[in-house]
Amino acid sequence: MNFFKRQWMVPYLFLAPALIGTIAFKLYPIFIGFWESLIYTSFSGGAEKRIFVWFENYQYLFDDKIFWKSLEITAFLTIIINPLQIAMSLGLALLLMRKSKFIRIIRSLYLLPIGIALPIATIIWGLMLDPNQGLINGLIGVFGIPPQPFLVSENQALWCIIAIATWKGVAFWMLFLLAGLEDIPKQYYEAAEIDGATPFQKFRYVTIPQLKRTILFVFVADTAANFVLMVPMIILTKGGPLQSTNVLIYEGYRSGFYYQDWGRSLSIITILTVITLIVIGLQLLFLSEKNEGIKVK
Amino acid sequence: MHFKRQWSVYLWYLIIFIGLIITILPFWWGVAASFKSNSQIFRDLAPISHKAFLPGFSLDSYFAIFENDFGRSMLNTFFVSITSVAGGLLINSMAGFAFAQFRFKGDNIIFGFVLLSFAVPADAIAIPLFKMMRQIGWFDTFYALIIPMLANGLIIFLYRQFFLGIPKELIEAARVDGLSWFGVFWRICLPLSVPVTLGAGLLLFVFQWESYLWPLIAAPSPELHLIQVTLGRFSTEYEMIWNQQFAASSIAGFLPLVFIYMFQKQFVSALTGVEQK
Fold first, then answer.
1. Are A149 and A47 contained in the same domain?
2. How far is B97 from chain A (nearest CA, A)?
3. What is the pLDDT at residue A291?
4. Cβ of A17 and B151 within 8 Å?
5. CA distance B125 to A280
6. Which chain A residue has the Cα nearest residue B17?
7. Could you tell me the pTM of the whole model?
8. Per-residue CA distances from B80 to B141, B217, B266 (Å)
9. Which of A4, A224, B91, B248 could form a disulfide with A17 if both were Cys (CB 3.0 to 4.6 A apart)?
10. Which residues are CB-neighbours of B249 under 8 A, at least 6 positions away?
């Protein structure tokens, strides 16, 4: 206990375990990832040899069709999935703000997917979407729609993964929006009503400005989460069919763990990290600036 | 006017109802099918009949998965989750205490780093972290599963916010009475923080219970498999044995669901930072 007599050390001692953990296992790996992306490992002659090659791994990547295809799929997925999830979460949150006798139980039921881990959701949806015996093909058959190939089709697989991730994700993001909506003072709506605002005007001029910070947070966090979405690819599609679900994070994972090409793997991860930071930076820049000036509080 | 109002209520119920079906259908079907034999599942599906949604009465699939090492991975997951929750709560609450109680050199910068670490998605650093574990010899051990997951910026933040609300007079009085700083933290602040600890502990538990990629790559030995990894393995190895996949999913999904529903209030306020009314 003599330690604690030295006043200036006290805060650092309290901080030390968590700080060491954060630096060693959260921040340092980013640095390692970049450093290792500059190294080429050769296995010639049985011995592992590590050679520092500057940006050669990146050069190979930029000449690689698979990488560009993967980047394209990642871009497509990002553009579709994030606005879709935000719009659906917001829509659901607004629906669940309505007063009803059953609202508590309805809300609880809608939160169910939060409690289910993504691997479980993926496995069950994988069985539901089975082309031969799946439940979905059975159900749409009732309406006379022919069986669909779903996850084994080049054109449908990515959409199926979007659907699975959205089923799992919407409830989670909705939770934040619901909390944000409940924080908006009722008087604002009453004032708008006295001024004769239509429901749409109330949404546009009260809800949206008041909810802006929550929406921004959800948008940024959701984007970051979806850049590393790969569980459905690992369990169901392996990036296929015909690379149609081969997003960057999965290509990085596969290069390392299937082909032992760590230089390539970590170059991809580094590029993905940089892209993520840029996209999130842009979101913060463009979406938070407009908030100034019309702030009420 | 009256008619129009009614109409919008019906529309609301219709949309809510359709949404609920989509939300619940996978659960319902999965749990119902986990109590059937494999051939029964397929018979109910082709051609599809209402029986697909009625639960069966067989427990065979549940017995079968426990013969397939499922019990082992559940025990592993319990062990890893409990140690991660205990360790994580301790070190993150200490850090939160430091940020709330003291002004010290570099506090803002360090706090910034902590928040930044929270923004780094775990799956993006999984591969470099994997290489690091191999270098320090933790690869394929419980250390790799537990220790890197302990420090958590979100949990530090939650504790800091809570400790900021504890009256300074209380802490000063305790100091005057001769309590050490660790005593202040351990005997006064921590016992007061039950609501945060519940929410934060639940978050840490759920993070650990649901993690898939990290346990998959960091500890490939079957003796170290965690529940989600075993589940993923089932889905490829027993591709055609649907009832076992459903049974394993039902068990793996059940526990977090129960906890989240028991502590829904604390869970939601820990996540969203908004006190639930």
1. no
2. 7
3. 43
4. yes
5. 17
6. A106
7. 0.86
8. 11, 16, 22
9. B91
10. A120, A123, A124, B30, B34, B231
Of A133, A142, A234, which has the smallest distance from its Cβ to B46's Cβ?
A133
How many A/B residue pairs have CB atoms within 8 Å?
240
**Cα nearest neighbour of B153 on chain A:** A22
A87 and A157 part of one domain: yes
Sole residue written with tokens 């289910």: A116
Rounded to whole angstroms, the Cα distance separating B122 from B211 reads 10
Beta carbons of A228 and B120 less than 8 Å apart:
no
- pLDDT value for B221: 87
Query: Which of the following CATH numbers is that of domain B63-272: 3.30.70.270, 3.40.50.12780, 3.40.50.1980, 1.10.3720.10?
Result: 1.10.3720.10
Contact predicate B194/B269, CB 8 Å:
no
Put simply, the answer to whether B246 touches A124 (Cβ < 8 Å) is: yes
| Distance (Å, whole) CA B255 – CA B249 | 11
Chain B residues whose CB is inside 8 A of the A266 CB are: 127-128, 131
Tell me: pLDDT of A289 over 60: no
Residues of chain B found within 8 Å of residue A23, distances taken between Cβ atoms: 113
Contact A92 B185 (CB under 8 A): no
Which alpha helices (DSSP H) does chain B contain, by range? 2-34, 38-45, 60-67, 70-101, 107-119, 122-136, 142-146, 153-164, 168-176, 181-183, 190-192, 194-210, 213-218, 227-237, 242-262, 264-272
Q: Return the bridge partners of A49, or none.
A: A42
pLDDT digits (tens, 9 = 90+) for B210-244: 888 899 999 888 888 888 888 888 888 777 788 88
Nearest chain B CA: its distance from A292 CA (Å):
23
Contacting residues of B for A279, CB less than 8 Å apart: none
H helix or E strand, kind and range, residue A79 = helix A65-95
Nearest Cα residue to A180 out of A97, A102, A107:
A97
Q: Do B12 and A95 touch (CB under 8 A)?
A: yes
Same domain for A177 and A35: no
For A93, nearest residue in chain B (alpha carbons): B16
Q: Is A291 helix (H, G, I), strand (E, B) or coil?
A: coil
Q: Are residues A43 and A75 in the same domain?
A: no
Q: Predicted ipTM?
A: 0.84
- Give residue A50's domain range: 15-54
Contacts of B263 in chain A (CB under 8 A): none
Q: Which of A10, A175, A256 sits opposite B271 (nearest CB)?
A: A175
For residue A149, the surrounding DSSP H or E stretch is none
Contact A1 B180 (CB under 8 A): yes
pLDDT tens digits, residue range B87-136?
Answer: 999 999 999 999 988 888 888 888 888 877 777 777 888 888 998 898 89
Instruction: Nearest chain A residue to B106 by CA: give it.
Output: A12
Identity of the residue in A11, A133, A235 whose CB atom sits nearest the CB atom of B102:
A11
Cα angle A278, A283, A284; round to 5: 100
Total count of domains within chain A: 2
CA distances to A84, A110, A175, B264 from B276, in Å: 27, 17, 12, 10
pLDDT at A293: 42
Rounded (10°) CA dihedral A167, A171, A172, A176: 150
